[in-house]
Amino acid sequence: MSAVYFQLLTIFCFCCTALTDSGNNGVVLRDVGGSITIQCRFTRLDQESLSLRKGLDEFQIFHHNTVSRKTTTAGGFKERLQVHGDFPNMDILIKNLTSNDTGPYWCRYEKIDIRAPQPIKTKGQGSVLLVVTDTDTTCETSDKNLILISVVISAVLLLGILLALFIWIIKTKTQCNTVKPQRINNNDVYEDMRGTGRR
Questions:
Q1: Which of 57, 114, 129, 143 has its CA 20 to 30 A from that of 160?
Q2: How far is CA 74 from each of CA 80, 126, 167, rounded to the nearest angstrom?
Q3: 51 pairs with which residues across the strands?
Q4: Strands (E), the chain
Q5: What is the pLDDT of residues 119-130, one digit of tens each?
Q6: For 190, phi and psi rounded to 5 degrees?
Q7: How far apart are CA 94 and CA 108, in angstroms?
Q8: Interior CA angle at 99 toward 28 and 63, to 5°?
Q9: CATH topology of domain 2-133
Q10: Angstrom distance (rounded) from CA 103 to CA 51
Q11: 80-109 pLDDT per residue, tens
Q12: How far is CA 18 from the centre of its chain?
């Protein structure tokens, strides 16, 4: 159950941060053992390198440098990663996905500028949030029943509260609208003797 919450939290966080720009972005659901193609796109040709990053800590999975013509791939991805296309528009295929591959992926282009102390880093198009699900895990029926019971109880409580509020409003409104009889002040000189009995 905690894995489901983790996946939902990951989706929520990524949607709030990484999907704010336009482009070929989205949430991609895959099964364990499947594959995904991440399409890195950039419009300007003056970039010198491309790297595929994963996670919030920006773990570098793939790096391609056009100046040195050197390509590096992270250890866990060497046998599972294939690259197609020409720089700067490259398609990166990751095969044999595992549940550890779940997370945000994005393309980062770098350009070395003589006037800048650090390379100029620019995010390219093609960001995706990969959610790898295990097909063998299913929700137990007791969990489904518990969810159904909690939803029904919540609905009944909500209806009860709304009904009580409605009755209270009607009762208060009718009490305010009823006219109370006004007491007529009697003249103290004259007394009403009808109520007293004769002796």
A1: 143
A2: 10, 20, 67
A3: 63, 108
A4: 26-31, 36-40, 49-54, 59-65, 70-73, 81-86, 89-94, 103-111, 120-123, 128-133
A5: 777 777 878 888
A6: -105, 135
A7: 17
A8: 70
A9: Immunoglobulin-like (2.60.40)
A10: 16
A11: 888 888 877 888 888 888 888 888 888 888
A12: 11
